Backbone:
């Protein structure tokens, strides 16, 4: 069901910003519940990408609480925090500052770790993949 994805847009896998200049544009794979999206990696953070997805109607809502300058999602599309379950964001980014070392999932041979920072600190630089689930606290 899930696999690491690295794609590019434009002719020959490149996007041209100015004549003579080619820039690679990657794709972020985002699974929200049972919905899968492939989005351009042009957004700096997951927060920016989710905000954009609401604006174009890909997802119905994105709400969050702010703690210590970080945005923690409490509603993304049909997933919503309850008293016993919360939105959990897993990713495959190899950065020790972005995940909890002991909390992980393996999907199709790929390790996804639970994010320990807010959506405004999670990058969307490709290749990366996010799995967003509603799970017990």
Residues:
């Amino acid at each position: 069901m899930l696999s690491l994805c690295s794609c590019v847009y434009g002719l020959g896998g490149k996007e041209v910003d100015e004549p003579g200049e080619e820039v690679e544009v990657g794709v972020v794979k985002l699974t929200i519940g049972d919905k899968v999206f492939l989005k351009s990696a042009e957004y700096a953070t997951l927060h920016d990408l989710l905000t954009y997805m609401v604006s174009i109607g890909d997802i119905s809502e994105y709400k969050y609480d702010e703690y210590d300058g970080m945005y923690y999602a409490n509603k993304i599309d049909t997933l919503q925090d309850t008293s016993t379950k919360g939105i959990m964001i897993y990713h495959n980014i190899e950065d020790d500052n972005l995940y909890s070392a002991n909390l992980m999932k393996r999907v199709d041979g790929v390790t996804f770790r639970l994010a320990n920072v807010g959506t405004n600190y999670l990058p969307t630089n490709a290749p990366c993949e996010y799995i967003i689930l509603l799970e017990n606290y």
